[in-house]
Specification:
single chain; 284 residues; alpha/beta; 6-stranded mixed beta sheet; two-stranded antiparallel ribbon; 10 helices; 8 strands; 17% strand; globular; binds calcium ion
Length: 284
């Protein structure tokens, strides 16, 4: 029930590493600089092409914020690899008691749930919806402020994970969006696809067949769980169609005591959607 995060020391080490390797001081790691950071490692721990995973500059190169985010993600989903690379990269075990001082193990989630608040810094949000419901655009909007800069090809294909930070009552929290790709409508979700800190169920307001799927998902997996859920109507700038199901989204949310559906469109990229998800994860 616990998760792993970079401690303050771990973050400081990785930020200093970035600054040392950002030779031209442009605030981003070019492919050459990226290669140099990992020159002492057998292979880089992740691809230099991380513009779909973290915030980057206009050229698609990770900024310092994006760099720290990428390591936060690494530490959350695959701790052994973070520890392995901290060793390659020279995390100093003489200045620090041991390598584990780069890592913080959080309190068990069930205690957070019982107290209805958590002091974690990193939260996992699962983004669930039918193919074509608008999940990809939503994940991209989390990393890119001005969606007009994106071309069509940027909106096709998605990484499984993306991460950025949000401010929750003035505190910086990192939110990982995991795109749960559903191939077949009737495919059951695995427990690992359900369990998360906050769930974002996405439907397309202009597609009458879109809501029923997430309504079923909600009832089957989330209604009895303690996981906070936010229903999001994507393509919020389109004409809203009546959904082919018994309860319309707003009625459904009312019945299950959920926040009303939040509308999202890439034309009016409102950061408050992500802040809401971060807040719900922090105060489950
Ligand atoms: Ca640079």
């Amino acid at each position: 029930g616990s998760s792993t995060e970079l401690s303050h020391r771990g973050q400081q080490f990785l930020m200093a590493l970035f600054e040392r390797n950002d030779k031209d001081n442009d605030g981003a790691l070019s492919p050459d600089e990226f290669k140099r950071v990992f020159s002492a490692c057998p292979t880089p721990p992740f691809s230099s092409d991380i513009k779909r995973t973290v915030a980057t500059n206009d050229k698609g190169w990770p900024t310092q914020h994006g760099w720290v985010c990428r390591w936060m993600l690494q530490t959350f989903i695959e701790l052994p690899k973070t520890l392995e690379y901290l060793a390659y990269l020279g995390f100093n075990v003489h200045e620090n008691e041991s390598q584990t001082s780069a890592i913080h193990v959080t309190r068990e989630r069930r205690i957070d749930l019982a107290k209805k608040q958590s002091s974690r810094t990193v939260y996992m949000c699962h983004v669930i919806g039918m193919k074509g419901a608008g999940k990809t655009a939503l994940c991209r909007a989390f990393l890119v402020d001005d969606m007009k800069k994106l071309k069509d090809k940027d909106l096709r294909g998605n990484n499984q994970f993306c991460i950025n930070s949000v401010l929750v009552y003035g505190q910086e929290k990192y939110l990982i969006l995991r795109d749960i790709d559903v191939r077949q409508v009737l495919d059951p979700l695995q427990p690992s696809e359900v369990i998360c800190d906050v769930s974002c169920l996405v439907y397309d307001i202009s597609d009458p067949k879109s809501f029923e799927y997430i309504a079923r998902i909600y009832i089957k997996y989330f209604a009895e769980s303690k996981i906070p859920v936010l229903i999001v109507g994507a393509r919020g700038d389109m004409e809203e169609k009546r959904q082919d199901c018994l309860l319309q989204p707003a009625e459904f949310c009312q019945k299950y005591k959920l926040l009303p559906p939040q509308y999202f469109s890439i034309k009016h990229n409102k950061r408050d959607l992500f802040t809401k998800l971060g807040t719900m994860a922090s105060f489950p």
